[in-house]
Design a protein that fits this description.
Two copies of one chain form a homodimer.
Chain A lengths: L2 H19 L4 H7 L20 E5 L6 H12 L5 E6 L5 E2 L5 E2 L3 E2 L9 E4 L4 H7 L2 H13 L2 E5 L2 H7 L7 E2 L15 E2 L4 E4 L2 E4 L4 H13 L2 H10 L18 H10 L1 H20 L1
Parallel strand pairs in A: 1-2, 1-6, 2-5, 6-7, 7-11, 8-9
Antiparallel strand pairs in A: 3-4, 10-11
């Protein structure tokens, strides 16, 4: 723990203790009866401190926001550790040119994981669907993880690794029609959960997914705290965030941009899924 | 332009040409009358291609989502270039441990900029408020930039650099009360614009800010396309994204976490602002 972590942690502890002493949240009030003075961690509900091992799997050309949205939310889980896993420790370049340094490799990543999350992308995701080392790591991690999750076209990688066979799932709206090639059942919803698989729709759906996961791993009050910290009271300037609500010409334009990519992803996904069943 | 950029670019051009040929968007239809076949760039409205120079200024302990939200939106501006500027080219660690490699330094950053954007943070932002080299760069870049922008507590850095004196502005709700020490006038709104200063509220407000900026730099149809690509139709699981809508105990808890930080930021901000007026 760095000095900064320690200080932040101490501030959190004091704040949590203070709110508990005020007796506000129902579950907390009970523990607070015997609450020691603010700086004592024992004043916090025990279940607010976790020890989850969380990993984001990144690859060249991943979409940074798919990863950073959930990363923000999950990094606020006190006691949890987050790894950024990639094939090597070399910095990884996102589709939009952001360069991120991994903290672990396929060989050094923690196992088993409590949460594995894979972001999407476009051409980079297509390349990853063709990369057996990436799919092998994802398959092995996914079989053992408590929560197997994706954002955006990341679900195509889960599918390619054979992890969505027989599961309801979603993806970016552009690639959602591809899910059946992996034995998955496309389902409605910004975030789709089926047993321990959680898949989120395109890019920004990662925020909604991760906040719900925070609530599950802690409780609603905790998640509300994280949401307030993120000041997540969105006000999109237009109503164009879904293919059904955007002007038809805009939906047609964006859909048209990905005709080639979707065709290539269908082919690569079918081949990968076949390999995953053989393996 | 990398091969990936080139392919993506070609796909965009084809898609834009196709939608123009369909005559859908009003402004586009006019240009489309004489539209050549799909792969010809000249079929796209000329103003959809820009050449903006955009820079995000990062520093140790910055909040990655403050930067990556806008980065996603602005990276979809065809023809624009984005720099990640820091004091040195050494990788920079975010408050939550994400390590990002800058692409330019204070010495090598483009000037003048069309957009300069500074993300917030907590202890890292406090340290930056005390760092004259960072404030000097920001002041110089801000005085020449077309759009001077911030997300979250990034506005405290704009203020420390003397760039909000006499401007209406906002910040993360926790730090908004500090704005007057910089001569700024706290204003309502998820995104506050006063002349060429644009400040966004906490963390996730960067998405709304940047999408509005895309609309300004291109047009509404273009921004709607970016919004649809991001599938930005948010569904926060709780109503806790603003201090007024969150359960009072949650607001009190989060506010309580930052009493010490806010006090330190007030002191550091006042000192920096005094130096910026002397300079």
């Amino acid at each position: 723990m760095s000095d900064m972590d320690r200080r932040r942690f101490a501030e959190c502890a004091a704040a949590f203790a203070a709110v508990l002493a005020s007796g506000a949240p129902a579950r907390a009030a009970q523990d607070a009866a015997a609450a020691p003075p603010p700086h004592d961690m024992s004043a916090m509900p025990a279940h607010w401190m976790g020890e989850e091992k969380i990993a984001f799997l990144i690859y060249p050309g991943f979409t940074a926001l798919d990863m950073i949205g959930p990363h923000y939310m999950l990094a606020n889980l006190m006691g949890a550790t987050i790894e950024i896993v990639a094939k090597t420790k070399e910095p990884v370049r996102s589709d939009a040119g952001l360069v991120v340094t991994p903290t672990a490799t396929f060989e050094t990543a923690s196992s088993p994981l409590d949460v594995v999350c894979i972001p999407g992308g476009s051409l980079g995701t297509l390349a990853a669907m063709r990369d057996d080392a990436t799919l092998d790591f994802l398959r092995a991690a996914g079989r053992k993880a408590r929560h197997v999750t994706s954002v955006c076209t990341g679900s195509l990688l889960l599918g390619s690794a054979g992890l969505l066979d027989g599961y309801r799932a979603t993806s970016h709206w552009v690639t959602k029609p591809l899910l059946p090639i992996f034995g998955a059942v496309p389902a409605d919803g910004r975030v789709v959960r089926d047993r321990n698989r959680i898949t989120a729709e395109g890019v920004t759906a990662g925020l909604d997914f991760a906040l719900a996961l925070v609530a599950q791993l802690r409780d609603q009050t905790y998640a509300e705290g994280v949401q307030l910290l993120a000041q997540y009271a969105p006000e999109p300037p237009f109503a164009a965030g879904a293919p059904e609500t955007a002007p038809p010409a805009v939906t047609k334009m964006i859909d048209g941009m990905f005709v080639g990519l979707r065709r290539d992803m269908r082919e690569a996904g079918a081949a990968a899924f076949a390999r995953s069943r053989g393996g």
